[in-house]
Amino acid sequence: MGMNNTRILITVLALVLTAAIMIQETKSIPLCNVDTNDLQKCRPAVTGNYPPPPTPACCTVAKTANLECLCPFLSRSGIDPSKLKALLANCGVNNPSCLP
């Protein structure tokens, strides 16, 4: 009987994890030509004291996003503007007007 309880517990845990993953993926919101979850691809390049260069996936997001549209959100994001400028420069993307 203990073995059956273990199997049930493992099955329930697998279902809960699958549901959590599905819910997380559905929280992405299209905003300014990019899904909000895709913006996470650039997080490492704008956080910390010495952020790494942006990845190719991050640069794709930066090139696809409508940065002028994102300006109101960027100013409230808490991201250091100098780190964001460095990311855009590394990706070959022009700064939006909110990042002179």
UniProtKB/TrEMBL annotation:
Q: Which InterPro entries match?
A: Bifun_inhib/LTP/seed_sf (IPR036312), Bifunc_inhib/LTP/seed_store (IPR016140), DIR1-like (IPR039265)
Q: Give the UniProt keywords, A-Z.
A: Signal
Start and end of every Bifunctional inhibitor/plant lipid transfer protein/seed storage helical domain?
A: 32-98
Kindly indicate where the leader peptide sits in this chain.
Answer: 1-28
Record-level GO BP terms: systemic acquired resistance
- Which Pfam families does the record cross-reference, listed alphabetically? LTP_2
What would you give as a GO molecular function for this chain, any one?
fatty acid binding
**Gene3D superfamilies of this UniProt entry?**
Plant lipid-transfer and hydrophobic proteins
Name this polypeptide is given:
Bifunctional inhibitor/plant lipid transfer protein/seed storage helical domain-containing protein
In the record, what lineage is assigned to the organism producing the protein? Eukaryota, Viridiplantae, Streptophyta, Embryophyta, Tracheophyta
